Amino acid sequence: MMRKWWRTKCALGQILRLRGRGFRSDAALKAISIAGEERVKNLALYNYPSLSGSLSALFAHLFHSHLNLPCLLLPFSSVEPLRVEDLCIEGLERVYLLDFLGPKRFADALSRGSSCEVIGFDHRKSVLGQITSDHPDKVTFYVDLEKSSSTAAYEYFSSKLVDLNSPDLLEINSVDLIAKGNSDISSRQSAANKFLDKVFRVRLGRGFYGECLGVRADGNSYLSDEIGKQLSARSAAAGLRPIGAVIYMQRNNLKMCLRSTDSATDTSEIAKAYGGGGSASSSSFIIRMDEYNQWLSVNASRWSKGMMHHFVKY
After folding, report:
1. Keywords in UniProt for this one (predicted)?
2. 3-class secondary-structure state, position 43
3. What's CA 62's distance to the chain center, in Å?
4. Boundary residue ending a domain (164, 189, 214)
5. Beta bridge partners of 45
């Protein structure tokens, strides 16, 4: 049992490490191309950044490994997402959308383009509008607002193995796995907290889009979501826009990630104005160093030292 748990733990670690890579990158496109050449029949796209997406990917991995079925696992993000035409590879029979359904009609176009079955899992109320009666027969959505996508995915793959008379499904303790996931979240949150005493004010678009709190996180891009969300709350508490800006170097480019916990705030309008993209709550773009310097408040350092003690821990 311990050996099986160790294999499960390693598999989860492998999936989580993928989160630090690019999304529609050359490596991802090459992996898809190779999958087409090898006639890989199963493709699993998991939502990034999302623990539920990563856990769902783990369940997909264990299911296909148990049956010795090749399956390509790739992260899917609203920031430079994979396109339908990228995924239309020869021999593809089944695509799983784990913890997301994709843009409007994405699943329909994918099913028609590849003549494959598309199975999506989500739990968000916002996707209910995408579920209509005119989807292709090969498109199936599992949306349950009362349970997480990872729970739904676990139950789905478990039932499939039972149908195949293989009742010893993954032989993992889901309670322990969820506890491990919660521990990982806590660990990442603690790591993110260490950056919160180094914040400064950022004049978004040289002030055109207002001001928010920002921080440099070079070498820690994998924490951008956790840091950005905490900065968003602190920025709002400081009377600034409810946006957190996380800045770091990425392959010789300076990248700025914007996060917001405020449903009325759209960070993507800023990102798109500078050649980037994303969703309302999560977006990013590459910014020139000279332009970035124009975004720094002239009193940033003085403000940081004078105001940080007023913040309440979130």
Report:
1. Stress response
2. strand
3. 20
4. 189
5. 74, 97
Provide the residue type at 314 as one letter.
Y
Helix, strand, or coil (residue 218): coil
Q: Which pTM does this prediction carry?
A: 0.50
User: Quick one: 202 and 112 in the same domain?
Assistant: no
Distant-in-sequence, close-in-space partners of 137: CB < 8 Å, separation ≥ 6? none
**Dihedral sign (CA 159, 164, 168, 172):** negative
10-residue stretch averages of pLDDT, the chain, 314 residues long:
44 44 70 84 92 91 86 86 86 94 90 92 89 87 91 91 65 60 78 89 94 92 88 95 93 91 93 90 92 77 46 41
| CA max distance for the chain | 67
In whole angstroms, how far apart are CA 73 and each of 15, 19, 22, 28, 207? 8, 11, 13, 10, 41
Q: What is the pLDDT of residue 173?
A: 53
pLDDT value at position 134? 82
The SS3 of residue 130 is helix
Mark whether 72 and 16 lie in a shared domain: yes
Strands 244-250 and 200-203, sheet pairing? unpaired
What integer pLDDT is reported at residue 176 of this predicted model? 60
Coil, strand or helix: which one is 209?
Answer: coil
The confidence score (pLDDT) of residue 80 equals 77
Chain centroid to Cα 173, Å, comes to 25
The range of the structural domain enclosing residue 290 comes to: 194-310
Of 189, 222, 243, the position where a domain reaches its end is: 189
Task: Please state, in angstroms and as integers, the Cα–Cα distance from residue 215 to each residue in 85, 194, 293, following that order.
Answer: 37, 11, 13
CB neighbour list of residue 237: distance below 8 Å, 6 or more residues apart? 311, 312
